[in-house]
Amino acid sequence: MRTMRNVPRCRAGHLFEADYCSACGLSGHNEDYALVDSEVGVCVADGVGGAPLGDAVSRLLCHTVMGALRDGCSAEEALEVGRCRLKSFLRTVDSPRSGASVMVLRCDAENYEVAWLGDVALFALGKGEQEPQLITSFDLAGDESSHAVNVRSNERPMTAFFPKDDICRFALCTDGVWRDVSSDEIASLLKRDISVREAAARLVLRDTVRDDSTAVVVSPRGVEE
């Protein structure tokens, strides 16, 4: 089963344009979740494979984080709010193995701020650059240096900061995307003159989807539609 979730095109007052696509892998239900609010930012979460409640954990984490962004928190602060809420939930339901990787992108009129824990990958294409840069700190061979949010999670999130004028596009991808789609393919899509909606869909809707796969593509605010 494949699903595509779309966000409205840019309207007056929105800080950026973004769209995302999510596809279910072989498990039969999608444990990825994403939210986009073009007035504040983006959150993407990927439930821990093989653990209970992956879909619920991802959904709870994204909604809590987005609420914190709307309340004026930074990306790192919003991730911490989400972590506290999720840890409380997992203790309540006695599910210590459950958790999620998460990435938060916050936007204001001048800057992007990103915070993450786990293996959601961030690719950034800067203005004038030929190739997008992988910003996240883990090795795409699978050696993650920042662990998922769970009941034992206490490490400080990784963070990055970008002046808005320096960026053409971001792609936020769960491991169902970046493990199966080469960096060259991701680079090619980010550089193409296609909509954020089409770019996200092409990253996800491949012939064979083995794992839950979600991609969010973000660009500075475009022409209102």
What is this structure's SSE topology?
Elements: E1 2-3, E2 16-23, E3 32-37, E4 41-47, H1 54-70, H2 75-92, E5 100-107, E6 111-117, E7 121-126, E8 133-134, E9 158-163, E10 167-173, H3 175-178, H4 183-191, H5 196-204, E11 213-220
Antiparallel strand pairs: 1-2, 2-11, 3-4, 4-5, 5-6, 6-9, 7-8, 7-10, 10-11
Helix pairs in contact: 1-2
Plain-language structure description:
A hairpin with a 6-residue loop joins strand 7 (121-126) and strand 8 (133-134). Helix content is 25%, strand content 30%. The model is unreliable at 1-12 (pLDDT under 50). The relative contact order is 0.21. The protein is α+β, with helices and mostly antiparallel strands and 225 residues long. The protein has a 6-stranded antiparallel beta sheet with strand order 1-2-11-10-7-8. A 5-stranded antiparallel beta sheet has the order 3-4-5-6-9.
Class inferred from helices and paired strands? alpha+beta
Q: Rg from C-alpha positions?
A: 16 Å
> How would a textbook summarize the main sheet?
6 strands, antiparallel
List the total number of helices.
5
H-E order = EEEEHHEEEEEEHHHE
Q: For the record, give the distance between the C-alpha atoms at the N and C termini, rounded to a whole number.
A: 30 Å
Number of strand segments: 11
Mean pLDDT comes to 84
Considering DSSP H and I runs of 4 or more, what fraction of the residues is helical?
25-40%
Shape: globular
β-strand percent reads 25-35%
